[in-house]
Amino acid sequence: MSIKNRGLAKNALSRKVDCRIPEEKFQELQELISKGQGLTMSELVRNIILNRKIRIVHHDNSLDLMMEKLSQYCAAIQSISIQVNQLLRSFLIKEGNTDNKGGFRKIENLLSQVDSNQNLLEEQIAKFSKIWLQK
Fold first, then answer.
1. In this structure, what are the phi and psi dihedrals at residue 21, rounded to the nearest 5 degrees?
2. How far apart are CA 19 and CA 95, in angstroms?
3. What DSSP designation does 37 have?
4. Residues 29, 51: one domain?
5. Which of 1, 28, 107, 126 lies at a 20 to 30 A Cα distance from 134?
6. Is the pTM of this model over 0.85?
7. What are phi and psi for residue 118, nearest 5 degrees?
8. Are residues 73 and 87 in the same domain?
9. Which of these, 8, 17, 5, lies nearest to 46 by C-alpha position?
10. How far apart are alpha carbons 89 and 103 in whole angstroms?
11. Which Pfam families does UniProt cross-reference here (predicted)?
12. 56 near 35, Cβ under 8 Å?
């Protein structure tokens, strides 16, 4: 046993292989590398030869924009619900006061805002679910 091979495991990568491939195959490999997460050409070819899984990660930038929109809608709905909660608490504190028509109108306006934001949110989800749930 040579000094180089001493201590190597049974499946160690001890041999180097050089080969030539057509330009179109090389471009296919380059495309896979660009989609892969930190793969080098050697790692990709080794994984193909050894029948290992090749992990390809795709990042869709349109989802970033969609997540920002959904986040904005959620923040707006949360803000409205906090305001409704505060109004209801103020009504509970002022039980003796029967002049609550203005407060009820505020709640009605806030609830209509919640409905419109909920409709916008549902439209966005429907639009992006077509992209997400493609077969």
1. -135, 160
2. 86
3. S
4. yes
5. 28
6. no
7. -65, -40
8. yes
9. 17
10. 11
11. MobC_2
12. yes
